[in-house]
Automatic annotation (TrEMBL):
One Pfam family this sequence matches: NFACT_N
Name recorded for this polypeptide: STAS domain-containing protein
Domain STAS: 1-51
InterPro entries for the chain: STAS_dom (IPR002645)
Gene3D superfamilies tied to this protein: ibrinogen binding protein from staphylococcus aureus domain (2.30.310.10)
């Protein structure tokens, strides 16, 4: 099944229903383009609407060019974890944070996870984890609140793409819009 804008909108709504204000326990990278976010929801209701013990869920995000995917499960799938500078910065910035919102801008194949990082002291600035499900051009980018890029799973300089430079310190520019009409 392809990951189109309608599917992504439905997934966004489901993720928001379950994980809004949820706490990020950890982040795991299992493949070059796959990140798993371990989240504990604020409250979890059973089928009768009663509070149930909070459980841990795993949001799987894959930017594999042949099969981009996003889904969540409550089953821990212990896979070999790889380490990368991208994962290290994600863990440093987002671990312990709360998912405030998830946006689906311009009905495109992009999700923005708005996250309030855990911080004991000082002013807290929200982070934005941008996930672009664009096949071979897919990317996962961590932004500061002012849209400045902190890091990305694929760093792209001006030699590769003059329109969109994805490098730390640069301002984030969204991919060119496909001017899709929102049917919802």
């Amino acid at each position: 099944m392809s990951l189109d804008s309608i599917t992504l909108e439905a997934m966004k709504k489901e993720l928001l229903d379950k994980f809004k204000e949820g706490k990020i326990i950890s982040l795991i990278q299992t493949k070059k383009y796959k990140i798993i976010i371990e989240v504990k929801p604020v409250k979890f209701l059973d089928s009768n609407g009663l509070n149930k013990k909070s459980e841990t869920f795993y949001i799987h995000i894959s930017l594999d060019p042949s099969l981009p995917e996003i889904y969540f499960t409550e089953f821990e799938n212990r896979q070999k974890t790889i380490s990368s500078p991208f994962l290290n910065l994600l863990q440093n910035q987002l671990k312990g944070g709360k998912i405030l919102d998830i946006e689906h801008p311009n009905f495109d194949r992009i999700l923005h996870f708005i996250i309030r990082p855990y911080q004991k002291f000082g002013k807290v600035q929200n982070k934005i984890l941008v996930v672009e499900f664009m096949g071979k051009h897919g990317n996962m980018i961590l932004l500061k609140e002012d849209k400045a890029i902190e890091t990305a799973i694929k760093l792209i300089d001006s030699n590769i793409n003059r329109y969109r430079e994805i490098m730390p310190g640069k301002l984030y520019v969204a991919p060119p819009s496909q001017n899709k009409i929102d049917p919802l």
